[in-house]
Design a protein that fits this description.
heterodimer, A: 248 residues, alpha/beta, six-stranded mixed sheet, four-stranded antiparallel sheet, 25% strand, B: 429 residues, mainly alpha, 16 helices, 70% helix, 0% strand
Chain lengths: 248, 429
């Protein structure tokens, strides 16, 4: 069976620096693939190519076996690829519903945006994801990190993402909220989504992921199943850029 | 997990139940204080129907542009060229209706189509120039400050070049009706307009309440809703009553009858009523508010202002959005050019000078944040009204010209300071 999403031999350069150099990764339905590496290893750049924020210099992307052409975030959404960004890509001055539907507003028969309907839908999905979420009318700048993250996640869930990209989803969150995101990832996995997860926290990654890919200086060092490796193996891959010695 | 209950809202009592924008209330309060102070200082001459009538028609031109400036500033840009673009559009329209159309196109003087062709062409010129500036900002990534600073010099002098610096007039009589005192609805139609506006406002309030109930959202108590409805209705009808109280002077009426070859009946009187230019401003305000609050375009404008990166990642074409915003600004400059030149009954070379500063000040006093993402249309119009009443009030009191500008400048800075403190207190930005 073809993987849900495959990036094959992707390269991109910025002003002579090869930020991503011939990297291939893939994700199957119901699988979480972790991307690990130092700052500047090229994880975020690689993933931004899939989400349409950057355009690769070379390489191909396949979604459900078909070649996909992704030139903008809008294209990525057409392939049901949703992204949750490290920087929490929300418009701070708008409320939760406006952010959830940003770029895909519900409109009434006159073509005007239907705020009441969007608020009702937001209320419905939030009751599922984060029952404590109450501040629907306030600008998201008034929300806590976890509440903001749940708006971003709700966006992905509401629009039936098949492939979910999470760039450091727990970086800005407290312990309890991190736990909530972890549970949510398990839930989405059960629903058959393919998830790319980026994080610095090696231990968290070993808990959440099925496979981890390690990058260094724009190159893929290797991809391992989590049950085959220890935390030390992963750390040495990140730091030394070497695959674990299986024979030893 | 599936049962969704409406969130528990604390019962609000008294004033809070009205859920009115305290910022708006503050501005209306400031405006009323200014009016009352000047009224005392001028021994009751400030709040006469005549002066209120003049105040409204003097405000229209700046207020129309200020609504567009809200969108420009909300998206973190600035437009310094609005006054100059107004002059270019005004010069073009003046030349078109007095020279090109009658002579070059052979329509002759006083052709019924002249004003409409002129206005349509003027609006197109304004929009195209605005779109061009927007393209320079959005696609070529030149800062809006620089593009429009250049535009300030370019368009001011394109206007000069078109007319060789001459004053062009008199303008077409129909065209001049849009300027203010030369075109008013008259008493009966003003009342009819007022009643229609009240009915529409009540219907809007009622349907908003119904929509909320349909989605099981909490609604204000009925008495609060009724109070707001009463205040709105009283405001609209009061405004119409004041404008209708301004009687056309007897001499002028006599001349109007003479022009029609009749004699004026003994004891005849008539009121001006609502000026067409004010009607135009109301239409612009309603349309711009609809765009801001109820369309995707408006949503994208505010989203881009709040977080340009998030907007881009959400699939919004922010470059094209910039072009649209500046094109809209240009369109409104042309509309203001119609009103301004029609009010003066001619195009003069210095028309719209320093208007860019008045427009930006009106938007900023009205609560538009230069950091982007925040601003309202009604605030900008109220800001323009506050600026205008300060200026004409001081002129009536007899404050020296340099002192007038010193006061206006101080008020601008103080207004932003108060706004900053207010936002900190209420937890906004």
């Amino acid at each position: 069976m073809a993987p849900l999403c495959e990036m094959r031999d992707i390269s991109i350069s910025f002003g002579g620096v090869r930020a991503v150099d011939g990297v291939s990764i893939h994700v199957n339905p119901g699988e979480v693939v972790g991307l690990l590496g130092h700052n500047g290893a090229g994880k975020s750049t690689l993933i931004k190519i899939l989400s349409g924020a950057y355009k690769a210099d070379s390489g191909e992307i396949f979604v459900e076996g078909e070649q996909a052409h992704i030139a903008s975030p809008r294209d990525a959404r057409r392939y049901n690829i949703e992204t949750i960004y490290q920087t929490l890509a929300l418009a701070d001055n708008l409320d939760a519903a406006s952010n959830l539907f940003l770029g895909r507003e519900l409109t009434n028969w006159m073509g005007f945006v239907d705020d009441d309907k969007m608020e009702a839908e937001t209320r419905r999905i939030m009751a599922r994801l984060n029952p404590n979420f109450r501040k629907l009318k306030e600008p998201v700048s008034a929300l806590s990190g976890g509440q903001r993250q749940s708006v971003a996640i709700a966006r992905a869930v509401y629009f039936n993402a098949k492939i979910l990209i999470m760039d450091e989803p727990t970086a800005a969150l407290g312990v309890h909220e991190t736990q909530m995101v972890a549970e949510l990832i398990q839930e989405l996995k059960k629903q058959g989504l393919g998830i790319f997860l980026i994080s610095h926290d090696t231990r968290e990654m070993l808990e959440l992921c099925d496979r981890v890919s390690v990058m260094k200086n724009g190159k893929l060092i290797g991809t391992e199943r989590v049950e085959d490796v220890t935390e030390d193996d992963i750390l040495s891959m990140i730091i030394m850029g070497k695959k674990p010695d299986k024979a030893a | 997990m599936t049962d969704v209950s409406a969130p528990q809202v604390k019962k609000r009592t008294g004033f809070q139940a009205l859920e009115v924008d305290t910022r708006l209330l503050g501005m209306i309060g400031a405006f009323l204080v200014i009016c009352i102070c000047f009224n005392i200082l001028t021994e009751g001459r400030f709040l006469t129907p005549r002066n209120i009538f003049n105040l409204t028609i003097q405000t229209v031109s700046v207020a129309i542009m200020a609504t567009g400036m809200v969108f420009v500033i909300v998206t973190r840009h600035i437009d310094l060229a609005v006054g100059a673009l107004l002059a270019t559009c005004s010069a073009f329209m003046a030349m078109l209706q007095t020279r090109y159309l009658p002579d070059a196109f052979g329509l002759g003087l006083g052709h019924p189509l002249t004003p409409w062709i002129t206005i349509a062409a003027g609006l197109i010129v304004g929009s195209v120039v605005g779109a061009f500036q927007g393209w320079l900002v959005g696609y070529l990534a030149i800062p809006a400050f620089i593009v429009t600073l250049g535009g300030l010099l370019v368009w001011r002098n394109v206007a000069w070049y078109q007319t060789s610096g001459q004053t062009i007039g008199p303008l077409d009589p129909t065209f001049m009706k849009l300027g203010g005192i030369n075109g008013t609805l008259g008493e009966t139609w003003s009342w009819i307009f007022g009643i229609v506006a009240v009915v529409w406002a009540l219907w809007a309030l009622w349907s908003a309440r119904r929509a909320k109930i349909a989605h099981d959202f909490p609604v204000k108590p009925a008495w609060a809703e009724a109070t707001i409805a009463a205040v709105i209705a009283a405001g609209i009808m009061g405004f119409i009553a004041i404008l209708n109280a301004y009687q056309i002077p007897e001499r002028r009426l006599e001349r109007m009858f003479e022009a029609r070859g009749e004699t004026m009946p003994e004891g005849f009187s008539a009121a001006y009523g609502l000026p067409l230019s004010v009607l135009l401003l109301i239409a612009v305000a309603v349309a711009m508010t609809l765009i801001a609050q109820r369309t995707r375009l408006g949503r994208y404008i505010f989203a881009t202002g709040g977080n340009p990166d998030a907007a881009e990642l959400s699939g919004i074409n922010t470059r094209m959005l910039t072009v649209k915003i500046f094109a809209l600004m240009g369109f409104l400059c042309a509309l203001s050019a119609v009103v301004a030149s029609a009010r003066l009954t001619n195009h003069s070379n210095d028309i719209g000078t320093l208007d860019e500063l008045r427009v930006i000040a009106a938007a900023v006093i009205g609560g538009t944040a230069l950091a982007g993402g925040i601003g309202t249309i009604y605030g900008a119009i109220l800001g323009a009204l506050i600026m205008q009443s300060l200026q004409s009030g001081m002129a009536m009191v007899g404050v020296d010209a340099p002192l007038q500008n010193i006061v206006v400048g101080t008020v601008l800075v103080a207004a932003v300071l108060i706004d900053t403190i207010y936002r900190k207190k209420t937890g906004g930005r």
